Amino acid sequence: MSGYAPRVQWKRTDLKRAGFRAHTVLDFDGNSGAPISDPARFCWNLNTSRAGGRRSGAMSSCAPVFLLDGFGNTRLNGGIRHCMSEPLSKNIFWTQGKVTAEQRAHLSGHSGCVIWITGLSASGKSTIATELERELFSQGKFTYLLDGDNTRHGLCSDLGFSPEDRRENIRRVGEVVRLFADAGIICITAFISPYRSDREEARRIAPPGKFIEVFVNAPLEVCEHRDPKGLYARAHTGEIKEFTGVSAPYEPPVNPELELHTDKLSVAECVSAILAKLDQMSAIIDGAPAADGKKD
Ligand code: ADP
Description:
The protein is α/β, with parallel strands linked by helices and 296 residues long. The chain is built from ten helices and ten strands.
């Protein structure tokens, strides 16, 4: 029975260094499970166990479930669980399905992925996203489009445009697209998603290697000139508060998979560029490996 006095340090240092969110938190109700003797071994366990039927080497998309009992003993409980944030409820368990993402991809001929389109309002996200989806669908791909305005009618109808609400908006969307991608769908999103950290979080929880960030980059003046919904004009009069590019920040991607200058490219050229990128990264949506590990 070894007590770990610097448990908080575990949280802040060892686990964070191992790629986990700093606030992966501990429970104190004690439980059965394999005792973990030290942080190094703990991380080793995570590295070498399996999560959700695939290797947990993609630790960035996993979080450990572990417990501290009242004596300071640390126990790994139930392996590894995929999550984005620590759930409030303690009495929940992960149910492992019997159909894998690989099997779904085998059936449909391609795997799921996320095409995350970000940019200022009126930069062209929705226009490109709808054309892209139409094109992929016509090629026989399973697709779905999530558009910022649409999800604010339902899933996110309780959210406004404060930094906290924007974060929660993207957190929810990130979770939804993760599910779509896992279901084998090519999921296209059109969200301003102004904060870099929020986009990175969406990437972090997406199936590893299946997140394509597309920066739709048009100068603010061009977007203001287009202003298809009249929003910039209303933002400038102060009628609309916290408007991205006018009274709220936009943090451009540092290293997106693709950057499209929509002031110079046509819609068709933008769609072609994304399709070419998908081709170039063909492993992203290629059919699943056959049982022997080779492609069909
Ligand atoms: P967002 O979804 O980013 O708010 P929208 O797609 O709703 O932007 O509006 C963009 C506007 O810009 C549309 O009126 C569209 O026709 C126009 N536009 C002009 N050139 C392009 C381009 N290359 N790509 C996308 N949209 C363009």
